[in-house]
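In this supplementary section we document a worked example of the pipeline. Step one takes a protein sequence of length 143 as its only input; no multiple sequence alignment statistics are reported here. Step two produces a three-dimensional model, which step three serialises into structure tokens for compact storage. The input and output of this example are shown verbatim.
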Amino acid sequence: MDNMEKKGEVVLYGTWGSAYCTRLFPSTFPIIKSSGKEQEKAIQDFSELLKVLEEGLEKDFPGKCPFLNDETLGYLGIVVGSSACNFDAFHEAVAVVVDSQEHPAFTSWVATLKDHPLMKETLPDHHKLVAKMREKYFQCPQV
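The serialised model returned by step three reads:
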């Protein structure tokens, strides 16, 4: 890969990292704050954004996990992994938002990311995170 190709790839990583941080991740907030039909709509909106991310990453990084540079955790892996690797806790505490049948590439990439030694070392304990999410998102207001 020549220098121009590397610069182009860096731009792509930055673009997708920005899209994740500014569009996809914030789209989980309406899911947390809603219920019933409103929550179903918020989940559908999230899923549509995830589909755009997944398809874009597949196009820009064909045949590889876009979150790793060979075996090294990359920029996009850190940006996405810090939250996406905790979707199982989100599913348990709030609602199922990432369907592996609907988003097979993304769930496969996240599984690969979760197996990375640095992610294993830094991710919070699943059960503690579920408890913290439930406490934070569903506690009764103090009177």
